[in-house]
Amino acid sequence: MNRIDLINNITRYLTILKTEVELRNALNLQDINVHAETYFRLLLNLLLELDLKNINIVDRNATAIDLGTMSRASPSCRWASAFRGSMRRAATCRRAANVRHAGGHPCSN
Fold first, then answer.
1. 84 φ, ψ to 5°?
2. Which of 1, 26, 67, 90 is deepest in the core (most CB within 10 A)?
3. By C-alpha distance, which of 27, 108, 1, 19 is closest to 62?
């Protein structure tokens, strides 16, 4: 398989995942979100050599943050969303900052 075929396959499967998440969320079937977060956690850990954990497992339905490191030395948080829009991102970043300042997420310690 050559490079363009690999890129086409990656694009196709990410598009399928995006569409599945959007459709299921529209029906209030949000179990796919957990699977998508797990997928992206594994992918980011592999590609960026991180040690991200699913914060929603540590803190059920954690506010704003989905993935984060548990390291006190270099905390890191990532947000994964099925929704587009700068207003949504800005609101999530504000909520994450408020929770972080309050010491609410494990990745904020």
1. -100, 165
2. 67
3. 108
